[in-house]
């Protein structure tokens, strides 16, 4: 079965979310934004929250990936990265490091890398390993 477009599910007047009442005076955007920056009205679908959730859940089931089944990744540069690794790498303490930061500012990351090298060498029985 082919999934319909979200616009085909749309029904005029149907809303998935209602904004709370304004607690500030209402202002027309035409008064605040110069006309040259205004666009025509957006063509957005009108769907209930349940319609949207079900639509995108069905779409997600059409995708095949490592979470669903065997997924041959090809060359050595296309490795599977466990989600926990991605979560850790995304922490601001790591993701915001810069190669030219002074060593004094990255001691935590250097310690983690050093400990990881040591633990990998212990597990594998090698004298040393490198993360290069």
Q: Short description, anyone?
A:
With 132 residues, the protein is mainly α.
Give a structural overview:
With 132 residues, the chain is mainly alpha-helical. It has 2 domains: 6-60, no CATH class; 83-124, no CATH class. It has 6 helices and no strands. The model has no long low-confidence stretch (mean pLDDT 87).
- Whole-number tally of structural domains: 2
SSE order, one letter for each helix or strand:
HHHHHH
Give helix % range: 25-40%
Quote the average pLDDT.
87
How many strands in all? 0
Distance between the termini: 48 Å
Radius of gyration, whole Å: 25 Å
> What count of helical segments does DSSP give?
6
In this structure, how is the largest beta sheet organized? none
Shape: flat
Percent of residues in beta strands?
A: under 5%
Ranges where pLDDT stays below 50 over 5 or more residues in a row are none
Structural classification: mainly alpha
Defining key terms:
about 130 residues, mainly alpha, about 0% strand
Topology (elements, then pairings):
Blueprint lengths: L5 H4 L19 H4 L16 H12 L22 H7 L2 H4 L11 H18 L8
């Amino acid at each position: 079965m082919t999934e319909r477009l979200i616009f085909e599910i749309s029904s005029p007047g149907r809303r998935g979310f209602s904004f709370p009442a304004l607690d500030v005076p209402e202002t027309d955007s035409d008064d605040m934004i110069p006309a040259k920056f205004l666009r025509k009205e957006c063509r957005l679908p009108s769907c209930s929250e349940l319609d949207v959730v079900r639509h995108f859940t069905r779409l997600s089931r059409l995708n095949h990936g490592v979470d669903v089944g065997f997924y041959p990744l090809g060359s050595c540069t296309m490795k599977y990265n466990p989600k926990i690794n991605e979560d850790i790498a995304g922490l601001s303490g790591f993701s915001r490091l810069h190669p030219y930061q002074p060593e004094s500012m990255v001691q935590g990351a250097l310690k983690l890398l050093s400990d990881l090298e040591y633990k990998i060498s212990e597990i594998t029985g090698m004298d040393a390993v490198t993360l290069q």
